[in-house]
Amino acid sequence: MLTKIETISSCPNCGSNQPIGYNFCGRCGQPNFVIEKEKDEESRRNIKYLLAYIISLLIMLIAGGFTEDSLFTAIILAVAYAFFDLAFASIQPRVWNLLLPKLIHFKPLIAIIIIAIVSGFVVSFVMDNLNYALFGETYSLILPFMESNNPLLFGIIIIGVFPAFFEELAFRGFVYNNLDKIAGKKSAMWGSTFLFGLVHFSLLSLIWIIPFGLMLAYFRNKYSTLLYGIVGHFTHNTTSVLIEYYRII
Amino acid sequence: MLELFQCSKCNFSLNSQDVFCNNCGYPERGNQEQKEIYEDEIKVKKFNATQADKELDNVRILLKIIIALTLLVGMFYLFSEDTFEDGIACLVATLIYIGCLIWVNKQPLSGVLAAFLFWLTLQLSVVFTNPVYLFKGIIWKILFISIFIKGINSARKYQKISNQLKNRNAN
After folding, report:
1. Same structural domain for residues A12 and A125?
2. Average of pLDDT values for B30-42?
């Protein structure tokens, strides 16, 4: 019973000994105000972090909107977002724990890769046709990279690698953690997905980004790691780039 | 030797010296009066929770108005070829606002935040196309923002009470 001795604090109301982290005093029934206050302060801090992130994100989006489509701005924006996400993730060291290569299981890894490849094909096909049917035009992912020597390489790095790592870190890491503390797991899954959809700044794209984001959030929640999400996000984006580059569909 | 027994409300194990449950605060070995006080406290908290929930009605009404307007404008846009794209955008936005309304009923704080954020993003994207739009209907915008912010406060209050109820295992 050694642990019992180490985990004792006294009730400020009646002075009796209580286990650390107790909700109510066993003798006098008074709630543990210290714990309640701590929880309240933590939730306030989480809301503050989240709002700071959202406001700076909106500013970044506005700034990005004033740039032209070119290789140079694409690279600058990708690097700027990377620094931005890194800065927020380093406020909360808990986010980095999600990147530890602990037990990576074979089955979920294969599952998410297959889901991501299939979704890459389905989304490319459906969105191209939908955009064409509704608006008479389709959108290109790799157009800004066509002026470079190696469009495929730039496409894979800037569309595949960067968003996979940094967006996962930001949305399934930072945003998810904060929302989880404020309002619970379910809200964290939906909320991070919702924000993830909003930053893509395209209403029509939400019809695939929301299910896709929920899928990533599901893996984040179930296995408590970002690694599956990073692999899935990378596979999906790279599949879309390859499809467009080789004109598969 | 401490004799262990369980709380009849939350099954938390307690030792024989305890009168109240460490986890949910129920006076497991208290007298009738203490038990009545406990039940009354929960009743008061539940009443406060419904009051805080009522305060959210403003946000609900605002969302319903926004949904109706977006849908109406969207339908109107759909009939003209020039504004067809905007019509589709309005319909998607309507669906998302409906989602937010459902969310407000399930988990008020994140629901109100999501609705406010979405509305703000849409306003920004409009201002984007032409900065003059920032001042169009500015009084309405200020009114909407104040209702949203008040809603966030009510939602926080609701959340706090609901957490206290959860602690007492009486949600």
Report:
1. no
2. 89
- Inter-chain touch A25–B20, beta carbons under 8 Å: yes
**Domain residues for B22?**
1-38
As for the ipTM of the complex, it is 0.75
Q: Provide the chain B residues 54-93 that lie in CB contact (below 8 A) with chain A.
A: 84-85, 88-89, 92-93
Number of domains chain B contains: 2
Of B73, B64, B70, nearest to B100 (Cα)?
A: B64
B9 and B78 together in one domain:
no
Q: Quote the CA–CA distance of A155 and A141 in Å, as a whole number.
A: 8
Amino acid at residue number A212: F
Domain presence at residue B139: yes
Can you read off the two tokens belonging to residue B41?
């406290």
Q: For residues A177 and A4, what is the distance between their CA atoms, to the nearest angstrom?
A: 31
Q: In this predicted structure, what is the pLDDT of residue A3? A: 44
Name which of B23, B89, B114 is nearest A23 (Cβ-Cβ): B23
Span A160-206, pLDDT tens digits: 999 999 999 999 999 999 999 888 888 899 999 999 998 887 778 88
- What is the model's pTM? 0.82
Residue B47, domain member (yes or no): no
Chain B residues in contact with A19 by the CB 8 A cut-off are 22
